[in-house]
Amino acid sequence: MAISKEDFQTLIEKLTAQNVTLVAVSKIQPLQKILQLYELGQRDFGENYVQELVEKQSKLPTDIKWHFLGPLQSHKVKYIAPFVNIIHGVDSLKLLKEINKQGKSNNRSINVLLQIHLATEATKFGLDNSELDTIINQISESPLTHVKIMGLMGMATYTDDVELINKEFKSLKQLFDLYKNSNVENLHFEILSMGMSADYKLAIEGGSNMIRIGTLLFGARGMKDLL
Ligand SMILES: *Cc1c(COP(=O)(O)O)cnc(C)c1O
């Protein structure tokens, strides 16, 4: 573990005082490291790959709340639909409809966050403001019965430029507040998921209430095939 037990507990105390939920991003990390954090009380874990998540879920305690991060292909939703707690990276109506369909066949409602494109890097995906607006309008007109839209998620540019990061987080917070305070039906805006190992403090200052941290907790990620 990259973080000591004491430092982890201090971190959790600070986050709890600020009403911020920690998602421990355990992608490419072995089961044993996940269990070490679990034993310290951590329950929210995040994964990026469907197959890896399904395997880990089947081997780890059932009270873990699993978060799916990153791009998700529609045809793979069915594998995680029975148990996933929140899907963070939803960026199309097509994907939302598939999640709804799989929620229905599992007789449950699935929590999702819509991902907004913030960063200057082209590799980070997500919706722009007008695409978000289009999706939200469609949802309010024809509600999805088995999807709960809990808020927004975004990733800032990976840079030392604090001003740029602050600007990106601020724009996401404003967008979040806009919909949270709107009267649009069928939205349950409560969660603003922003902040990773390198920028979580800025994210919390900027209004985040859910941070996704991997490297800082577990250390650098090894090669995937060393699992
Ligand atoms: C991997 C990942 C993280 C964690 O990144 P760290 O820099 O290791 O904290 C957070 N969010 C998403 C979407 C990720 O893919």
Summarize the model shown:
The chain has 227 residues and is α/β, with parallel strands linked by helices. It is built from nine helices and eight strands. The chain has helices at residues 5-17, 31-39, 50-59, 77-80, 93-105, 129-141, 162-180, 200-205, 215-218, and strands at residues 21-25, 44-47, 65-68, 86-90, 110-116, 147-154, 187-194, 210-213.
Describe the fold and architecture.
The protein has 227 residues and is of the alpha/beta class. 40% of the residues lie in helices and 20% in strands. The protein has nine helices and eight strands. It has helices at residues 5-17, 31-39, 50-59, 77-80, 93-105, 129-141, 162-180, 200-205, 215-218; strands at residues 21-25, 44-47, 65-68, 86-90, 110-116, 147-154, 187-194, 210-213. It has an eight-stranded parallel β-sheet with strand order 7-6-5-4-3-2-1-8. The two termini are 16 Å apart. The mean pLDDT is 94. It binds pyridoxal-5'-phosphate. Pyridoxal-5'-phosphate binds next to strand 8 and helix 9.
Topology:
Blueprint: H1 5-17, E1 21-25, H2 31-39, E2 44-47, H3 50-59, E3 65-68, H4 77-80, E4 86-90, H5 93-105, E5 110-116, H6 129-141, E6 147-154, H7 162-180, E7 187-194, H8 200-205, E8 210-213, H9 215-218
Residues 25, 27, 48, 69-70, 155, 196-198, 212-216 line the site of pyridoxal-5'-phosphate.
Structural descriptors:
227 residues; alpha/beta; eight-stranded parallel sheet; 8 strands; 40% helix; binds pyridoxal-5'-phosphate
Distance between the termini: 16 Å
Query: Biggest sheet: strands, sense, closure?
Result: 8 strands, parallel
CA radius of gyration is: 17 Å
Total DSSP E strands:
8
* Chemical compounds bound to the protein: pyridoxal-5'-phosphate
Mean of the pLDDT scores? Answer: 94
Helical residue percent?
40-55%
Question: What proportion of the residues form beta strands (DSSP E)?
Answer: 15-25%
Order of helices and strands: HEHEHEHEHEHEHEHEH
Contiguous runs where pLDDT drops below 50 for at least 5 residues? none
Sheet with the most strands: spatial strand order: 7-6-5-4-3-2-1-8
Number of discrete helical segments: 9
Shape: globular
Coarse structural class: alpha/beta
